[in-house]
Amino acid sequence: MVDLRPEDSEERAFLVGMEVRRRSGGGAKVTAQAQAAREASSASSAESSSQAGKSAKPSIPEFDAEESLSELRTLAGSAGARIVGEILQRRDRFDPATLIGAGKLEEIAGAAASVNADLLLFDHDLSASQQRNVEKIVGRRVIDRTQLILDIFARHARTREGQLQVELAQLQYLLPRLAGRGVEMSQLGGGIGTRGPGETQLETDRRKIYRRIRQVEQQLENVRRIRAQQRQRRESAPVATVALVGYTNAGKSTLFNALTQAGVLSSPNMFATLDPTIRAVALPSKRKILLSDTVGFIRNLPHTLVSAFRATLEEVQRASLIVHVSDASSRLSTEQDAQVELVLKELEAEKKPRLRVMNKVDLVDQEVAEDLLRLSSRGDSKILYVSAMEGTGLDALLARIDSLIEEDRVSRVHLRVPQKEGRVLALLEAKARIYSRVYKDGAVELEADAPSSVMRKLGEYIIAGDEAADSA
User: How far is CA 321 from CA 41, 239, 316, 347, 359, in A?
Assistant: First the structure.
């Protein structure tokens, strides 16, 4: 039977969560990704903790099974699914054949049939054999967490580059799953998990897959070369690039819009931003930077996606400053930050200069938010608190970025410019921050903060220190 429903029609999804009770020495349940997240967070905070003279490691809240299932629910909604049921299975170990056990699958098959579910969404990665075995028992399409994320990326990719990156990741995911595919092979169009390359004859021929992968990689290499040329032109001028990174749905695009007025799509859906956007932003010193909005990260982000989006994420690798945006209203913001650290480490960008920004303070208690915003206004605050939605705390954020950018450094200068030099005075108005202006003997004496690039053009008008003191 062929499914001919439109691509964006709403599908009925049944969610399956999984918790493995592994006991540590203290009896707590732990997962591999939680342990990796704790290690990443501890490593990222080690330097600041040692400077503060503290040896205690921070306590990091973990994603428990219910919260993980809640995140899967949000992912499913972003993919266009309607949740019609869910179940959470707790076991002492994974079942190698079906992940959750044949007996539990029989129960799930009955529950899914009773609500007429179109597919099962697993909050876990399935091997090719596990996926086939589960499909035989439940008689429905089965999508694991990685395939769901890939589908959301395919749904939101708008530019040719983004579509190529998603297709490459999907093909790499598909390759080990060619042999003996079951129920989903009858689905020839539409539905979650079939966007991008789709369920076509392509999937029946491994050689065609390899050939298409090489073609996509070549096209992406061309994209990377063009992007490198564009970056080289940008870097020829003393303009720094600042990259926004963070967990998906932390409010990066909303913050990007608030700072640049760019009108980039901001959405509560996960992975609403896939295609990178770069806009110029004027800092308080009147220097300009290029602000880059990037794809959001997520727990267990598929490695194939990180590899496929490497051309896009090079903006993070080459940035002068990384602004790490977190959701201040989330109980799991520390755990989410640790997951971002893991991706930055994979990109070899974990040692880049970093600025931490807690967004969405408008969603926390008003009195607490006011205290946090007051702290942000201090120049020595290590973490800034903002509300991109309400536009609060943004001046302090721009001032902090200004203080951290090394390119085209700003310094205080005294100048005497003849009043007839309108071009020079206009340049100062546009590019420098003027603190005082005195008209004397047909000239204008100014005290200003000016970038190095401007000072090089105005060398003949600069007053030496002693002469500036005499003029005052």
Answer: 19, 12, 9, 15, 18
Q: Which contiguous run of DSSP H or E holds residue 111?
A: helix 102-114
Q: Give me the domains of the chain, ranges plus CATH numbers.
A: 1-29+64-234 (3.40.50.11060), 237-404 (3.40.50.300), 410-471 (3.30.70)
> Hey, how many other C-beta atoms are within 10 angstroms of the C-beta on 148?
23
Q: 46: Cβ–Cβ under 8 A, 6 or more apart, which residues?
A: none
d(CA 315, CA 295): 11
Beta pairing, strands 354-359 & 321-327: parallel
Phi (first) and psi of residue 82, to 5 degrees: -110, 125
> For residue range 357-400, what is the model confidence (pLDDT) as tens digits?
999 999 888 888 777 777 776 766 778 999 999 999 999 999 99
Residue 362: strand, helix, or coil? helix
The pTM (predicted TM-score) of the whole model is 0.75
pLDDT band at 283 (very low <50, low <70, confident <90, very high): very high
In this predicted model, which residue has the larger pLDDT, 34 or 157?
157
Q: Which residues of 427-457 are buried (b: 16+ CB within 10 A; e: fewer)?
A: bbeebbbbeeeeeeeebbbbbbbbbeebbee
Give the other-Cβ count within 10 Å of 58's Cβ: 12
pLDDT at 60: 46
Distance CA 342, CA 195 (A): 28
Percent of the chain with pLDDT over 90: 34
**Cβ pair 275, 162 in contact under 8 A:** yes
| Residue 3 predicted with pLDDT over 50 | no
Strand partners, 320: none
pLDDT digits (tens, 9 = 90+) for 6-21: 444 689 999 999 888 7
